[in-house]
């Protein structure tokens, strides 16, 4: 016989344990969508007070001892755990939501199973991860609208979180249990790793004497133009540069110039060019012979793949 969790209110009251950038933005977005956020808790009372001050009728709670966290469940139906990943499992050991309450973490990398200990009193658990770069800006709560939020939960909590995402103007996605590592790694490419690539461009331009500030300002039209084109035409359709033109000669000269600098500049360029070839092959009338020539040009700069060993 399968036990069914009792229903949650369709628009539950929300609480937060952790008062950083994620809590500030999510609490603000939920409040704008008409949800009550009556409590924010943090080990640093000043952080909880800062977030609570921006909300209507919100109480700031300072956590002096781990057991203090449960006071959040006296005020909220659904509590979001917005703490660092390493603290999620430890917090769950002390939290005891009732069967008609829920504990939800907001990590993209940690499995929902880390919250299992919080189900000892019947509480429901889930994951609610916004695909959004929380920059700590005053308008994060507003800019969150339009983002995707990845939800992992069983009914009835799943439906509640889906509605919350929709009410905040976001699009809900779902991932299967056990796949958060690959999911989160992919998210890094669209966020932090994009910044790393821009840093590489800045380093190359600095090496030829272009001031760093000028380099950063010069790249924004390129960046925004590329992103806008990708949104309109798809990734392969927006591809530009020597790979899209099948220009093996330019790619060869690029790698030679980067290799002369030392370091791993030529390797990074070649690995990314390898992925650009993959995109270019998806285009109608792709010139496979030219793309094969580019692949041969970058081959010397790509580290060999280690062979698989039998278990």
TrEMBL record:
InterPro entries on file: 6-PGluconate_DH-like_C_sf, DUF2520, NAD(P)-bd_dom_sf, OxRdtase/DH_put_Rossmann_dom, TM1727-like_C_sf
Pfam families per the UniProt record, alphabetical: DUF2520, Rossmann-like
Domain DUF2520: 148-275
Ranges for domain Putative oxidoreductase/dehydrogenase Rossmann-like: 9-124
Taxonomy, superkingdom: Bacteria
Protein name, per record: NADP oxidoreductase
């Amino acid at each position: 016989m399968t036990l069914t969790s009792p229903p949650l209110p369709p628009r539950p009251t929300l609480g937060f344990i952790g008062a950083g950038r994620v809590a500030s933005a999510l609490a603000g977005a939920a409040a704008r969508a008409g949800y009550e956020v009556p409590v924010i808790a943090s080990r640093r009372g000043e952080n909880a007070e800062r977030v609570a001050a921006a909300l209507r009728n919100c109480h700031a709670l300072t956590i002096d001892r781990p057991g203090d966290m449960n006071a959040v469940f006296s005020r909220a139906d659904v509590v979001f755990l917005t703490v660092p990943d390493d603290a999620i499992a430890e917090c769950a050991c002390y939290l005891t939501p009732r069967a008609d309450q829920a504990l939800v973490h907001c990590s993209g990398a940690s499995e929902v199973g880390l919250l299992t200990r919080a189900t000892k009193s019947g509480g429901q658990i889930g994951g609610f991860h916004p695909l959004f770069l929380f920059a700590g800006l005053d308008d994060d709560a507003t800019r969150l609208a339009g983002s995707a939020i990845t939800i992992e939960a069983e009914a009835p909590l799943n439906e509640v979180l889906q509605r919350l995402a929709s009410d905040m103007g976001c699009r809900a996605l779902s991932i299967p249990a056990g796949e958060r590592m690959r999911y989160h790694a992919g998210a890094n490419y669209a966020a932090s790793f994009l910044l790393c690539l821009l840093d590489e461009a800045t380093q190359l331009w600095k090496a030829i004497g272009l001031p760093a500030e000028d380099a950063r300002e010069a790249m924004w039209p390129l960046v925004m133009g590329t992103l806008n084109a990708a949104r309109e035409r798809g990734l392969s359709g927006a591809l530009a540069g020597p790979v899209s033109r099948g220009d093996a000669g330019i790619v060869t000269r690029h790698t030679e110039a980067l290799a002369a600098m030392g370091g791993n500049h030529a390797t990074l360029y070649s690995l990314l060019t390898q992925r650009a070839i993959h995109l270019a092959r998806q285009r109608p009338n792709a010139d496979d012979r030219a793309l094969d020539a580019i692949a041969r040009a970058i081959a010397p700069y790509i580290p060999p793949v280690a062979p698989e060993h039998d278990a």
